[in-house]
Design a protein that fits this description.
The complex is a heterodimer.
Chain A: H1 16-32, E1 82-87, E2 90-92, E3 104-108, H2 109-114, H3 132-139, E4 145-149, E5 159-165, E6 172-181, E7 186-195, E8 202-211, E9 216-224, E10 230-239, E11 244-251, E12 256-265, E13 271-280, E14 285-294, E15 300-309, E16 314-323, E17 331-340, E18 346-355, E19 361-369, H4 373-380, H5 386-402, H6 408-415
Parallel strand pairs in A: 1-5, 4-6, 5-7, 6-8, 7-9, 8-10, 9-11, 10-12, 11-13, 12-14, 13-15, 14-16, 15-17, 16-18, 17-19
Antiparallel strand pairs in A: 1-2, 3-4
Helix pairs in contact in A: 1-3, 4-5
Chain B: E1 4-15, E2 18-29, E3 33-37, H1 44-52, E4 58-66, E5 69-70, H2 76-82, E6 84-87, H3 99-113, H4 121-134, H5 139-143, H6 152-166, E7 170-174, H7 182-195, E8 201-205, H8 209-214, E9 219-224, E10 227-232, H9 234-243, H10 246-249
Parallel strand pairs in B: 3-8, 3-9, 6-7, 7-8
Antiparallel strand pairs in B: 1-2, 1-4, 4-5, 9-10
The chains are: A alpha/beta, B alpha/beta.
């Protein structure tokens, strides 16, 4: 039985537009198929279904037990957060939202669909033909949350979205979230993926993010899936006038990890900062792919991605900056720097700039190399042993990206993780 | 009775095919100050790097003993913790590593080697404050990334600070005076003089008499073509200042 032929009964089949959308997702996925190395966008991260061990969506009857730690609403942070919990790909909707400030709504995607609020956003931020996994995600739309910050409102503490896999079974965590910030609204979201057992599950997450005029979203992700897990995530972001999107991902090693940002700077003054760090030391594949589309004048984007790859692992960075003919006076910058610490490790980097407008400032750069022997020697002549010197240099390399995080408490939290 | 700190005997070394140290011998005893002078390109910095254990050099013959141990068997960090310090002519910038953090690692590596308790943040800061004040190094500089954007003078003062913190048995100072103005030179010289005592030794590589007027050497060596061609006292340095190297290198 192939992955898409699983006879899964999903709720909401009685809602025509939803069934139609799922159907379109199924068709688009069938049409694209599993991406292979022949698919340009997936050239370095060929991802085949054999690797997936036939994962299944886990429904309520196999839900986590009463003593599962995800029910205790704990947080790893030394500061206040609001929490949303997913366990084995299923949303726990008991606790969230009860102490949220005025103007903030967090509800399950199901509720948002039945309330009629989700329809104008769901599937509206990207074309499924271009994103095979997001098409697959659409075919199985079921689990997720809708986060809405109303006009002129601020979420006063970060929203912590915790995805936890604790079941040994091969589960398929198909998550679809909608994040909507109305005009002049702001929020901080920290997503955290983790597992307490080394299961070979599959996470396929899609966030559709809509930022209205002057809205501001700080979006952090800590991908700390199990070593055997496969993880694919898409952040599809639409930005209107003077809105800003600031993202950072810390990508730890799992079997295959692809973190993709598809960002549309649709109106004047929209700005995006897309930064990331990846660390690999075994034989996993970590892919950070960005596609930033400057569609209007005076838009801005900046990307800084740094990686460290050891063992037989592979790091991939693909960064596309597209500047439309009318997008004058725009700025788009991109830099990828990787440390390649073993002869059998691999780094693939593909910067792509498509510039159709004059009067733009664009830059891109990529470096890849070992630790600097002069720096190593200098440290050693001060008595710092080789191992410590290497660690100091690796941390220094990655730290530069984390230093860009504007919120001090979150910056400090990520710094202690590296 | 003289106690040797460094004993180099008939040392030859090469980088690739090029022989750069040729039959070099030098013994430095406790309490001594040696100055090594020589024309540009004579290989003085290479000699310093070989002693500090830089990779890429192959020792083809001879022996080096440091405090009685075979230096060739020691990694650069072991040489450092055992008491050999190299103040570099061109200190390396390390973006992303704060000066204070770097120095704390260095000091604690040495303490660990000496089986002393490692200093915690507060203890280290206290030590750092005292030593940096003596060298006119502001606290702000210690928060910056090490040697990143430092002026020539700042880099040299930082090298001396590291030497003071590590209290080496032998300090090799490779052009510690280059690029310094008169005041900075005096501060650096004082820092070196305060370190020196009857139990340690200095090897000062310099082009200038100015530094040697403030730190009086017991021996002055002229280094040329990979080895010492003449040894004298401070008068030899004065003679060099007067007449240059031509009298010493022409016969080589």
């Amino acid at each position: 039985m192939s992955f898409t032929e699983q006879n899964i009964s999903l709720w909401g089949e009685d809602i025509p537009w939803l069934s139609g959308l799922r159907q379109k997702g199924r068709q688009a996925f069938t049409h694209c198929g599993w991406p292979t190395a022949k698919n340009e966008a997936w050239k370095y991260t060929a991802f085949s279904p054999e690797k997936l061990h036939n994962p299944q969506i886990i429904h309520e009857n196999r839900h986590c037990s009463a003593d599962c730690h995800c029910r205790h609403n704990h947080s790893p942070f030394p500061f206040k957060v609001y929490t949303v919990e997913f366990c084995n790909g299923q949303l726990h909707d008991e606790n969230f939202a009860d102490d949220l400030p005025q103007g903030i709504t967090i509800k399950s995607l199901a509720e948002a669909i039945y309330d009629g609020e989700a329809q104008k956003y769901l599937g509206k931020s990207f074309a499924m033909e271009n994103f095979p996994f997001a098409a697959l995600n659409t075919a199985y739309i079921e689990q997720g949350v809708m986060i809405l910050v109303e006009k002129n409102h601020q979420l006063d503490a970060p929203l912590y979205v915790h995805y936890h896999v604790h079941d040994e079974a091969d589960c398929f965590c198909n998550i679809r979230n909608l994040i909507i910030l109305e005009s002049n609204a702001s929020a901080t979201i920290i997503e955290h993926y983790e597992a307490d057992k080394n299961a070979a599950y599959f996470t396929n997450a899609v966030n559709e993010i809509f930022l209205n005029n002057s809205a501001n979203l700080q979006h952090y992700t800590w991908q700390n899936e199990a070593l055997e897990a496969h993880h694919v995530a898409l952040n599809s972001v639409q930005l209107r006038t003077d809105s800003s999107y600031n993202s950072f991902i810390l990508q730890n090693e799992c079997a295959t990890s692809r973190h993709e940002s598809f960002i549309n700077l649709q109106q004047r003054g929209a700005a995006a900062e897309v930064n990331g760090v990846y660390r690999l030391q075994n034989n996993g594949v970590s892919d950070i792919t960005t596609n930033i589309r400057h569609l209007a004048e005076s838009t801005y984007s900046n990307q800084l991605v740094k990686g460290v790859v050891n063992g037989q692992a592979k790091g991939v960075f693909q960064g596309q900056i597209h500047i439309a003919p009318d997008a004058i006076n725009t700025e788009g910058h991109q830099l990828h720097r990787a440390l390649l610490l073993s002869n059998s490790a691999e780094i693939d980097c593909k910067p792509e700039l498509e510039i159709f407008a004059d009067d733009v400032q664009c830059s891109h750069g990529a470096t890849c190399g070992d630790l600097d022997p002069e720096q190593m020697f200098y440290m050693q002549t001060r008595g710092i042993d080789e191992n410590t010197a290497r660690q100091l240099l690796i941390t220094a390399h990655l730290q530069e990206v984390i230093e860009k995080i504007p919120q001090q408490n979150i910056k400090d939290w990520f710094l202690q993780l590296i | 009775m003289l106690t040797p700190i460094l004993e180099v005997k008939n040392l030859s070394a090469r980088a690739g095919d090029k022989e750069i140290i040729k039959n070099f011998s030098l013994t430095i005893n406790e309490g001594e100050i040696h100055a090594l002078m020589g024309p540009n390109g004579a290989g003085k910095s290479t000699l310093a790097h070989v002693l500090a254990g830089k990779p890429n050099y192959e020792i083809t013959s001879g022996s080096i003993k440091f405090l009685g141990r075979d230096l060739q068997q020691m990694k650069p960090e072991e040489r450092a913790t055992a008491g050999l310090f190299l103040s570099m002519q061109y200190p390396v910038a390390i973006p992303g590593v704060s000066t204070a953090n770097f120095l704390k690692h260095a000091v604690n590596a040495k303490r660990k080697y000496n089986q002393q308790k490692e200093l915690d943040a507060a203890e280290f800061l206290k030590l750092l404050r005292t030593e940096s004040a003596a060298l006119n190094i502001p606290a702000e500089m210690l928060k910056r990334e090490i040697n990143v954007g430092f002026s020539g003078g700042e880099k040299k003062r930082l090298e001396i600070l590291q030497m003071r913190l590590l209290q080496p048995a032998l300090a090799i100072l490779d052009e510690a005076d280059s690029g310094l103005d008169i005041d900075a030179l005096r501060i650096v010289a004082e820092g070196i003089n305060r370190l020196h005592n009857e139990h340690n030794a200095l090897l000062i590589i310099t082009h200038h008499l100015d530094l040697l007027n403030q730190i009086t050497p017991d021996f002055v060596h002229i280094y040329y073509n990979g080895h010492i061609v003449r040894t004298g006292d401070k008068k030899l340095a004065e003679e060099l200042e007067e007449n240059g190297y031509k009298n010493f290198v022409e016969n080589e």
